[in-house]
Every structure is written in structure tokens, then in C-alpha cells.
UniProtKB/TrEMBL annotation:
Keywords: Aminotransferase, Transferase. This is Aminotransferase. InterPro entries: AspAT_Ic, PyrdxlP-dep_Trfase, PyrdxlP-dep_Trfase_major, PyrdxlP-dep_Trfase_small. It comes from the Bacteria. PANTHER family: AMINOTRANSFERASE, PUTATIVE-RELATED, ASPARTATE AMINOTRANSFERASE. Pfam families: Asp_aminotransf. Signal peptide: none annotated. One of its GO terms (molecular function) is transaminase activity.
Amino acid sequence: ENSTPVAELRGAALAARLAEVRADYDRFRARDLKLDMTRGKPAPEQVALADAMLTLPGNGDVFSESGEDARNYGNLQGFAETRALFAPLLGVPPEQVAVGENSSLGVMHDCVVWAMLKGVPGSSRPWSKEEAPAFLCPVPGYDRHFAILEEYGIRAIPVPLTGRGPDMEAVEALVADPSVKGMWCVPQYSNPSGETYAPEVVRRLAAMRTGAPDFRLFWDNAYAVHDLRDAPERVANILDACTAAGNPDRAFIFASTSKVTLAGAGLSFFAASPANTAWYLARAGKRTIGPDKLNQLRHIRFLRDEAGIRAHMVRHRALIAPKFDAVDAALRARLDGTGVAHWTAPAGGYFISLDATPGTARRVVTLAKEAGLALTPAGATWPGGQDPEDSNLRLAPTFPSLEDVRAASEGIAICILLAALERRAAEPGAQD
Ligand code: PMP
């Protein structure tokens, strides 16, 4: 019922529909809810899955397999067994993994800063000495990636995502410019579009001619094991692709256990070619005497092996897949057939990306806020917070309870529909 495309409504029918949806909105607002779908945080039940870690490694269990004392300084690169445990997920040999602290964003930040101040292997000068260094930014993308660029005065050039990775025609044209030094990539279950780069896209990223000889892919595989469906998607191995294409140093790979174990107390990883790993460790050795190795032991004892990681991720999936389904069901119930929005059904990751009627995303967020529902600011998925279409919204359903996700999604659907109807009503001829 009531699923006439909004674009076809006019006159009295439009006025009636608008009044009806306004009443829905008022009723929703009167419920006086406090809901938050802003950030991709694991729910309390998810972090509790790792509560056994809080008593690990336990009294007396402080030595690595080779007898290093986890309580003391040292081992900049991380224990061999930590690197062996996570190397398969990163797709590199353990010797090419460096274990960081609790945040991969911090590792990415450091790599950008070091590249700016010192350059990377193959640089003839630091990136900051270039006239106007730039990064390609697939959109919609991760706001914290864009914020790092903004912080250091690096230009952000948006490139469209296609559903199978970035538009490679556009990328190949843009990287011919030598001032383009890097590119953000979330290659699997991308934030927020959920897409996984197709094998052909990975191959072209690895093989494309870049104007800058020291160009780097910032390959942020944050969702490497974060499946929501039975048929998992796996991105092709970027390091192998780069090596095969004769560009062995092109990729910096990042990942973490933030959304495996504990978001605030996980392990982060840098992985790359031997030359890049040596470069990373030389810089890292100036900022720390060594990482938190007790946390490494904690992870090794808790997760044990690859099968342990998989089993743990299945428990996450059981908690969050129903929330993704609830968002989809609520949006469908109110929006199917209206033509006012389309959204993703991701096979993994932490987000649903929704495109509302162009020109209404900001209005949707305002309407939601007034009804007690916090959404990620419109535009956040674009560099500088500027979505030229004012249409993309990032929905993050993991943190709230299932019940709250249901309520919030109904509210979002109402706000999207109301904003689209308001806009339709303001169009020339719609009142006739
Ligand atoms: N990269 C992406 C794509 C993310 O979505 C997130 C978390 N929202 C991060 C990195 C942050 O990772 P960490 O906790 O390891 O800093």
C-alpha cells in the first residue's frame, strides 16, 4: 500500500501523502526515543565475546615461544607467533608483518606523516616538498581517512565506487598526475558501501602507470574476516598482484583486531614488501622502544589459530547479522516502490550505505535529530564533508540493541520519505 513512486505524486494525492507521512513522523517523534546509529562500534555484547581476554595471559604466562619476556621492552616488530597468527589474514609472509598498538588508524596516520616528512622507498624527496600532494579517495568512504588528509594539507580527490571497487578508468587517468601520491582503499566490505574490490580492479590498481614513482595504495583491510553471510567475499591478494605487475612496493597494508576482539584494546598490523616493512620499522623504532607484547600474548592465547579467529567471527555475525536484516526490513516496509532511496545489503563489514533522494540527506539527518535519532552527519562519507549530491547516508547498525535498531530504522525510513515528499512538493508543477 502507498508505494506510488513519490516522483509521480502531484496535487491532492501528493498533499494527502505528505500529511500522512508527517503524521507518522510526529508519532515517531512523540515516542521520545534516544537512538544512535552514528558510528561503527561493536555492541557491548560483541566486546563481551572477548571477556576471557581480561584475565589473559594470566599470572606467570609472560614468555613468547622463544623465551622473550612480554613484560619488558623490546621486539619492535612483534612476536613471531603473533605475526604467524595474523599473516594469513594479511596475505603476506610473517617476516613482512609488523605488529602495532591498538589502532590501525594510528598506523595509517603515522605512515602518512612519515611519508610527508621523510618520503617512502622510491621517493626522491618527502611528499610534503611536492607542490600539492594528493590522495585519491574512493567515495563514499571513511571519514577518518579523509580527516588525516585534511589535517596535513593533502588534497583529497574523490573517485566514484562502482559496487566492485573504484571506477578504474577514472583512477588510471588521475594517477598519471605525479602529485597524486596515494590512494585510500578499503578493499573488502568497504566502509560504508560494503563492496569488495573485484579481482580485475585489484589487478589494475597493482599494474596501473602512476605519475609518481613513489605512489602508495593505503590498503586498509579493516574488514578482512568480518562476514555477515554464508558466501563470504574475499579480496584478491594485493601484494601478490603488485609483485606480479612489477610494482612490488606499491601497497601498504593495514588491519587490526579492533572488530575481532576489543575495539579499544586490539592489535594493529602493518604489512608490505620487504623494503616497505624495513622502512616502516626504521620509523617505528624512533617512536617506541617496543609494542605492548602482553596484549599480543593475550590475543595468541585467546584466538589460538586461524580456526579460532573464524569461530570467533561467527559469534559476532550471530549478534549483528540480525541487525542488518532489521534495517533492511524496516526500510523495505516503508520505502519499497517509492523510488526515494536505495541502499546496500552488504555481505560483511559494519555499514549500510543509503542513497536518499538527491538534495535531501542533510534534511533527513535534521529530521532524525529532531526525533531523537542521531545519524552520521550527511556528507561525512565525502572528503571535506561535501557530498555534491547531498544524498549519501551511512547507517551503522552494530552498536544499538536489536530493538533499538528496529525503531531507529523505522524512523530513518519515515524521515527519508518525508524529506523526499517535501522536496517533491516544492518542485514546479507538483501542485497542479
Ligand atoms: N579503517 C576502517 C575502514 C574503519 O572502518 C575503521 C573503524 N571504523 C578503522 C580503520 C579503525 O580501525 P582501528 O580501530 O584499528 O584504528
